[in-house]
Amino acid sequence: MEIEEDEERRRQRKLEEALEVKSLRRIISAYLNYPEAAEEDVRRYEKSFKKLPPAHKALLPHYPSKFKNLRRCISLNSYFIFTMLQAFEPPLDMSQDVDGCKDPHLENFEHGHCHSEERNASSCQSVSTSGRMCCSNHAQACSQEKSNIMSNPTTELQEVKSEQQHEPIFGSGAGEVENKNEIAECCSNDVADSNGNAFSSPHDWLDPSLQLNVPLVDVDKVRCIIRNIVRDWAAEGEKERNQCYKPILEELDAQFPNRSKESPPACLVPGAGLGRLALEISCLGFISQGNEFSYYMMICSSFILNHTETTGQWTIYPWIHSNCNSLSDNDQLRPVLIPDIHPASAGITEGFSMCGGDFVEVYNDSSQIGVWDAVVTCFFIDTAHNIIEYIEIISRILKEGGLVGWQVWINFGPLLYHFADMYGQEDDMSIELSLEDVKKIAFHYGFKLEKEQTIETTYTTNPRSMMQNHYHAAFWTMRKKRTTTT
Ligand code: SAH
């Protein structure tokens, strides 16, 4: 009986892993499809241009050179993407045969939407796999894939690298923040699957023969990631970071005035995106852990955090993909240097980590109860199917008791529920509470509102675009009240 159960569990795990491989392969394919999809756009522009009557065409003599420039920008963006993929070391055995395992969800595409500032909202769709879709509407992060990027949340994702010594900038793992040696150990460069088998060559999975033809909406997510890079890692994103991250950092600084260097407070950042906020929190003197479930995001953040050698090492052209709301071609074709800082020399606090996986799956674990001094959510809480569950978990994982002024949840963002417009999938749910109700639920789970403010901000917006979507984001600090009397 027990043996049968073990066997069943093993089979289940294998199936889950195979599905993850399939999902990751699809994401890698989306990245690899980027040049072709972008080229297709330029071909479309050219086609329209050619249809112009000669007299009209003559008014735009610079257009052929614009197309040429667009192609040059696409190839430079592609160069960045390929370099990033080459540095990626999949945490899964990509050689697994998944053809035999058919997941109905993986085949099942459905419409979501993504408000893109410069596109027709309905033209940017998202796709659902395994019933878990996250096209971050406000975020344009458009990350979507299987809910769990790693079945084992403590599996290491990151490579060991830093300037002075071979120490990791960040490792990964939920909860307990590991000591240096452990991180270094887990982050060794050997690529091995969960059974410890090393792969023949770490880049077999980049073989073109394994490349899937992905729907164009997946490539849209790659474009969204490029915009996210500007938000987190370019000088152009500074204004937005000052709107969103700065108030959070100032609040953390004020809430933990006498934090010790020997034993820094621990701060969790669920939905960490490309990792800049988690890094800044680390630099502020916290043991910081970002949690992120999108491979699109994790591949990119890992690359920037672990593989950057100098400031401005790469040049990307984030704004080439839209001809709309542009003041000039020069604006559209302008280069953006990334990253604006060298992460390894930014002054991080030991124990910085990124944990891959679904927030609910990873942090609902009993090992996470009362572990964190602070939880920071930025443009995250509306990614929930069930926001009540998010709030319950945030409350559970915060420490109880301890010093006055600790155990805080700092939130920043709108309530643009990601699953609000998902219809058709029977097993999906989306609980869309008003701000008033969100606060009521938080009070129920033991929070007390300490500060509340509305802050106007953009999200991954082209600062030179004629269209600027603004959010009136809710910014609050809540403290977890003591529930036990001692
Ligand atoms: N905090 C970042 C990213 C916000 S977008 C910023 O301010 O820029 C929301 C992020 O949450 C996306 O990167 C998305 O992939 C991630 N996310 C959504 N649902 C998640 C979940 N259940 N667990 C972990 N991450 C999640």
TrEMBL record:
Enzyme Commission number(s) of this protein: 2.1.1.22
SUPFAM superfamilies in the cross-refs: S-adenosyl-L-methionine-dependent methyltransferases (SSF53335)
Record-linked InterPro entries: CARME (IPR012901), SAM-dependent_MTases_sf (IPR029063)
Organism: Gossypium hirsutum
The UniProt record lists the keyword Transferase: yes
Family membership noted in the UniProt record: Belongs to the carnosine N-methyltransferase family.
Pfam families: CARME
Signal peptide: none
Parts forming coiled coils: none
Superkingdom, natural source: Eukaryota
Molecular function as annotated in GO: carnosine N-methyltransferase activity; S-adenosylmethionine-dependent methyltransferase activity
Protein name per UniProt: carnosine N-methyltransferase
Key words, A-Z: Methyltransferase, S-adenosyl-L-methionine, Transferase
GO biological process assignments: methylation
Top EC class of this enzyme: transferase
